Amino acid sequence: MKNGILWLILKALFPVLFNAVFFLADIQPKNASVWISYVFVHSAYVLLLLTPRFTVRSRSAALFGTTLGGLGLFFFLAELALGSVLIAVRPEGWRTAFFLQLVLSVFHIAALTSTMLADQHTAGGETVREAELRTFKGLLYEMRRAVDEAGEGEEARLLRRTYDLMASSPVRSHPSVLDIERDLEAAIRALPRVGASGENREDIARRAEEIQRLIRERNHLLKRT
């Protein structure tokens, strides 16, 4: 609650100071160009305050927020400087003040939008990467458990070689290998049941060789992408 009040006071400092100078200074006449600049300066400040709401939620949110915040601050200071000059000069007519600040605002919004889209693309890539890591690590865990349940013997060594092959495979995925990964997941999750039910070594070896084949096929396709 206290922090919220402090932030509110801090955010109110600029409009209070700016309006105090604007209305107490002897700026006469306050023509259309002056009021247009007044509105643009306040609009730029409001947009600066709203910028954190546009930050993409992801692991890099702090970096995204810094980028957007810096961009918003740069354009706000540029608008403040331009608006202050126009208020002081008070050009005749409203077109000059309006179009100069409109161009700056368009650049501001365009830069903000393009940065947000780039951040969303980066965050989407992070989400895909994290999903791939979770899926592949889950399969590695299942394979490791199958190795542990196999105990000792030839079948255990075969499963261990299969695990090592999988552990050295790329974590990243690709649409071209999704079917293989589904088959790989089904084959790996069947292995603990094979070991637990005491089926013969030939069955375990057959399943392990099938997993190795799928892993090699997946690796081959990933190298081509």
Q: Stretches where pLDDT falls below 50 for ≥5 residues?
A: 58-65
**Mind summarizing the main beta sheet?**
none
Structural class, by secondary structure, is mainly alpha
Radius of gyration: 31 Å
Order of helices and strands: HHHHHHH
Distance between the termini: 53 Å
Number of helices: 7
Estimated helix fraction:
over 70%
Task: Describe how the helices and strands are arranged.
Blueprint: H1 2-24, H2 32-50, H3 61-89, H4 95-150, H5 154-167, H6 178-196, H7 201-224
Describe the structure.
It is a single chain. The protein is an all-alpha fold and about 220 residues long. About 80% of the residues lie in helices and about 0% in strands. Helix 2 (about 30-50) packs antiparallel against helix 3 (about 60-90) and helix 2 runs parallel beside helix 4. The relative contact order is 0.08. Keywords: Membrane, Transmembrane, Transmembrane helix.
Which terms would index this structure?
rod-shaped, 0% strand, mainly alpha, 225 residues
Task: Sum this structure up briefly.
This protein is mainly α.
